[in-house]
Amino acid sequence: MYTVSDVIQALDLTKTFGKHTAVDHISFSVREGEIFGFLGPNGAGKTTTTRMLTGVIPPNEGTALVLGFDICRSPVLAKQGFGVVPETSNAYTDLTAWQNLMLMGDLYGIPRGRSVDRASELLRVLGLLERKDQKVQAYSKGMKQRLILAMALLHEPGLLFLDEPTSGLDVQSTQMILSLLRDLNQAGTTIFLTTHNMEEANRLCHRVGIIRAGKIVALDAPEKLKVAIDRVHRLEVSFDREVPADALAGLDGVLSANRTGDKWQITAENRDAAIRSLVTFSREHNATIVTLNTLAPSLDDAFLRLTREDHP
Amino acid sequence: MNPAGYSEQVRRAWAIAKKDIRIYYIKGPVLIFGIFMPVFLFLAFLMGSRQLPLAFLVSGLVGMTLFFTATAVSPAIFPWEGQAKTLERLASCPIMVEAIVLGDMIASTLFGIGITLITVVIGLALGLSLIHGITLLAAILLAACCFSAIGMLLAVPPTNVPSNIMMLSSLLKFPLVFISGIFVPLEQMPPWGLALAFCSPLTYFADLVRYSFTGSHFFAVWVDIAALGFFMVIFTAGTMYLHKRTMPKRM
Ligand SMILES: Nc1ncnc2c1ncn2[C@@H]1O[C@H](COP(=O)(O)OP(=O)(O)OP(=O)(O)O)[C@@H](O)[C@H]1O
Ligand SMILES: [Mg+2]
Taking ligand 2, which is a single-atom ion, which protein residues have CB atoms under 5 Å away? Predict the structure, then answer.
C-alpha cells in the first residue's frame, strides 16, 4: 500500500481526549510532490491529526512516518525537514517580523547569512518587507498569517503543513498565499493543507481526504470524488430546432429528459454513453447542438453527502 | 550537521535564550523589580536587626538577589507561551524539550548573574572588602545555574495560567529563603533549623558568599561547592525529565 515516495504515512493514528476519541485509527499516505487537501466539518479531527503528524502532540496509538522518520521516535530529524503553519497564528508578538524570522533560522540551524537572504526574499514576495522592523503586535490578521507562512518556509522545507491558512483573510491575502503555494508545489514542495473551503481544495489539491468524526470517509482526487458521489449525472443540452421528448428519453444511456425553457435537462447513468448518443441523435435528426453542459456535482455536494451523519 | 546532535541542540538552546532575554528580561519593570526587590528587602532587614554586621547582611543580600532574580521570570515562561500558542510553534520546530528548557535556564542564569553583580558592586561601594573574588565568581556562576533549574522546576505543573504558577512559586520560594541562614546565621540556629538548612541550596551559596566577604564560613568551601553542584545536576536533570513528560499537556 505504501511506497518509498510517500512523504507522509499515517499508520493507525489515534488520539483520545478523556473518553472522547478525536481521531480514530486513521491511515493514509501523501505522495511526494502532491497537494493533499484534508477536509472535514468542524471538530472532525483535522487539527488534531495535523498536530500529531507534526509532532506537537503524541498519538495514543499508531504513529506516522514523515519524510521517512518516525515522528514519535525521531521527532527532531522529521521536523528538520518540514514547515508548519498552525491553526492559530503564533509568531512572537513582542518581536519584530525580522526577529521572528531570525529566530526560526536559528532554531532550524540555518547559517545567519542564508537566513538573512531567505527572510528578505520571503518578506518581499509576501509584501511585508517595509514592515519588517515593526513588532508583530501591530500586524493585521492577514499580515500575521503571511508572516507565519514566511516563518514556515525560511528553511526551505520539502514538506509544508498548513492548517486553514486562509481562514478569515481577504481575497488579496488569500490569493497571495494560494499562488505562493502553487509556485512552491511547482518547484517540488509537497503540501498538506487543511481547509474548509471546497473551492480552494477543488482548484488546488491533487487529492483530498475527507474526515468525519475522527474517521476517513473518502480519499481520492477531487474530480473522482465528485463523480463518485452522484450515481446519476446531469447534462444540459439545447438544439437549434424542436426535437421530440420521447426520442431523447429513449436514447442509449439516458434515464430521463425534461424540458426547461429552450434547454433539455437530461439525467444519465453513464455520462460518456449519453453524450455519444446525443451526438448521434443530432446527426440523425439534422438538429445542431447549440449548448451541451455537463452539470458536475460540486465538491460541496460530495462533502455534504459524505459528512452527513446518516451516511454509512 | 546532525540536527539532533548535542552541539546543534545546544546552539538552538542559545537561540531560545536570546529570545527569552529579548522578550521577557530586557523590560523596564522586570529589570527594576530585579534590582529593587532585594535592595528593599535588605533595607527592611537592616533596620530590623542592627546588631548583625554589615558583611553578614550583604552576604544575605547577594544570596537573596541571585535566588530571586534567577527564579523570577522563568516559571512563567511556559504558561505564557502556552497561552500565546508560541509554545506550539517551538514544539513543531526541530528542537528537543530539553534544549528549550536549557535555553530558558541560560536566560535566567544570565539575568541572575547580571543583577547579582550589581548588588556585589553596591556592597563594595558600602565599604566591604572582597577577600575571595574567584570563589565568589565561581559560587555565583554555579548557584545561578542551580537556581535557574529551580525556577524551571517550579514551572513543571502544566498550567497555562501564569498567575497560578507565580502564586505557587512564591509559596515555595519564600520559605526556602527563611531556612537558608540568610536572616539568622547558621551558628545561631537550633538543630531542627540546621537540618532544614542542609536541604536548601541557598544555604551553601550564602555560606560561600559570606566566606568571600569575611573569610569565615560554616561549611568547608569544597562542601559548599560540591553541594551546589549536586543540587544543580539533580535539579537540571529532574526539570528536563519532568518537562519532557508534561509538555504535551500544555498544547
Ligand atoms: N486539547 C484538547 N482537549 C480536549 N479535546 C480536544 C482538544 N483538542 C481537540 N479536542 C476535541 O477533538 C475533536 C477534534 O478537534 P479538532 O480541533 O481536531 O477539529 P478540527 O477538525 O480541526 O475542527 P475545526 O474545523 O473547527 O478546526 C473536537 O471534538 C475537539 O473538541
Ligand atoms: Mg482545526
Answer: A 46-47, 87
Question: Model ipTM?
Answer: 0.91
CB contact under 8 A, B94 and A92: no
For B140-195, the pLDDT digits (tens) are 999 999 999 999 999 999 888 888 888 888 888 888 888 888 877 888 888 898 88
pTM for this model (two decimals): 0.86
Query: Going edge to edge, which strands form the sheet with A61-66?
Result: A20-31, A6-17, A61-66, A69-70
pLDDT digits (tens, 9 = 90+) for B89-135: 999 999 999 999 999 999 999 999 998 998 888 888 878 888 899 99
Helix A222-229 crosses helix A299-307 at what angle (to 10 degrees)?
60
Report the alpha-carbon angle A169-B94-B90, nearest 5.
50
Domain boundaries, chain A: 6-224, 231-296
Q: Whose CA is nearest to atom 22 of ligand 1?
A: A47
Are the C-beta atoms of B207 and B181 separated by less than 8 Å? Answer: yes
Chain B interface includes A160 (CB < 8 A): no
Alpha-helix residue ranges (DSSP H) falling in B155-200:
162-178, 191-198
- A231-296 in CATH: which number? 3.30.70
Domain ranges of chain B: 3-250
What is residue B94's DSSP assignment?
S
